[in-house]
Amino acid sequence: MLIYFSPTIQVTILKHATAPFPFKNPGLVTIPLAFIVGIVVSLVQTRLIASL
Question: For residues 36 and 5, what is the distance between their CA atoms, to the nearest angstrom?
């Protein structure tokens, strides 16, 4: 999804003036975000299982 909104697609291919998402490589945002979400989910899941 972020690749579609990046300058690589929006400016280079679709010839729009600007792109809504500023980074050409969305992995700079999505990989750390996925790592943080994974940690949070595992902590919440551990607490839910422990409370059963």
Answer: 23
Give the dihedral of Cα atoms 15, 18, 21, 25; nearest 10 deg. 60
pLDDT digits (tens, 9 = 90+) for 5-51: 999 999 999 999 999 999 999 999 999 999 999 999 999 998 888 88
Phi, psi of 19 (to 5 degrees): -115, 145
Token output for 28: 């700079």
Return d(Cα 35, Cα 20) in angstroms, integer: 24
Measure the CA–CA gap between 3 and 13, rounded to whole angstroms: 12
Maximum Cα interatomic distance, the chain, rounded to a whole number of Å: 55
